[in-house]
Design a protein that fits this description.
The complex is a heterodimer of chains A (98) and B (233).
Chain A: E1 11-17, E2 25-31, H1 35-46, E3 54-59, H2 71-75
Antiparallel strand pairs in A: 1-2, 1-3
Chain B: H1 2-19, H2 28-52, H3 55-60, H4 71-74, H5 80-103, H6 109-134, H7 138-152, H8 169-186, H9 214-227
Classes of the chains: A alpha+beta (98), B mainly alpha (233).
């Protein structure tokens, strides 16, 4: 993420854990001068309506993302292999959260 | 109730001042942060003013001389450093005061116990910015220095005893001085010199004597309610 000249603050990605036991999920992004301030801004922007119990902030520049151009080689081969999904089992009665 | 008015007016007036940053803050993230703090304070003001009477009447229909807030909180936002200096002085004081009130069994103990967590965050916000402005660039250091100096003479009033608050005011002042000094030292700044209360004016807010910028602020805060009494939407 270059293009942040002129003293602009770097971009941070925010991950919020909704409650104990859940994983942190991506909530959005924000600008902040450093990690400590990013955490505080994240608190104000993403948890002020009690959305979370834990926060992570990660510099956006540290994230390596897959490219839209490589979408086909990356994801297409998975589309026609139903045997990779556990869909051929009968789920016993009474088993929830599967 | 003198004390409910004094503490409630502090929260109400500072809340309004912070709200003035909406649409004007240096960055969007900071605007939300300041608005959050303003809303926390507004919540405290509602509880406190309700202890003293009808919250709307007290907020919107009193004249300037009937307000009992300290003069520090009515000072204009100035540049961002002035707002942060005002926050540092006030929220450090408010946190210490609420800690004391929460320990007691007076009428403010339940509110103080709840609000002290909010205020701890306000104080942390002010500290973080004081560190970054003080230990930032040459210009941010100078601006922070000027802001701390300009507001210093309003700090003495914070420790004038408020009737109805069972607090050791001189001990509170000592604790405040050491906390503020510690932050300023880390921020490569130092405690301002010069009088922390002015014989002429600073220090009379609790008696209803306010500084010039308070009138226009109050006019803006009250004009809607006064123009359309009982309006609802």
């Amino acid at each position: 993420m270059s293009g942040e000249g002129n003293g602009a603050w770097p971009l941070w990605e925010v991950f919020v854990r909704g409650r104990r036991g859940l994983a942190h999920t991506h909530a959005g992004s924000l600008h902040a001068p450093d990690a400590e301030m990013a955490l505080r801004n994240a608190r104000d922007l993403y948890t002020r309506r009690s959305e979370g119990v834990s926060l992570w902030v990660v510099p956006s520049a540290s994230i390596t993302a897959s490219s839209p151009d490589e979408k086909d080689p990356f994801f297409e081969p998975a589309a026609d292999k139903p045997y990779r999904h556990p869909t051929f089992y009968e789920i016993p009665e009474g088993v929830r959260h599967l | 109730m003198t004390a409910a008015l004094a503490l409630g007016d502090d929260a109400l007036v500072l809340s309004h001042r912070l709200g003035e940053w909406a649409g004007h803050a240096p960055v969007l993230e900071e605007e939300v942060a300041l608005a959050n703090i303003a809303l926390d304070l507004l919540g405290q003001a509602r509880v406190l003013l309700s202890l003293a009477g009808d919250e709307d009447e007290l907020a919107y229909l009193r004249e300037e001389r009937a307000f009992r807030n300290v003069q520090l909180v009515e000072q204009p936002n100035g540049d961002f450093a002035h707002t942060i200096a005002r926050q540092l002085y006030f929220s450090t004081y408010q946190e210490l005061l609420y800690e004391e009130l929460a320990r007691g069994d007076g009428p403010f103990a339940p509110l103080a116990a709840k609000a002290v967590k909010e205020v701890a965050y306000h104080r942390d916000h002010a500290e973080q910015w004081t560190l970054r402005l003080g230990d930032g660039t040459e210009e941010s250091h100078q601006r922070m220095r000027r802001a701390l100096d300009a507001l210093w003479r309003f700090t003495g009033e914070l420790f004038e005893p408020v009737e109805g608050c069972e607090v050791e005011w001189s001990a509170l002042h000592g604790a405040w001085l050491s906390r503020v000094t510690a932050v300023l030292t880390r921020a490569t700044l130092s405690l301002p010199e010069g009088p922390w209360r002015g014989a002429w004016a600073a220090g009379a807010g609790r008696q209803g004597i306010h500084t010039e910028p308070f009138g226009p602020m109050l006019a803006q805060m009250q004009h809607l309610h006064r123009s359309h009494p009982g309006a609802a939407w």
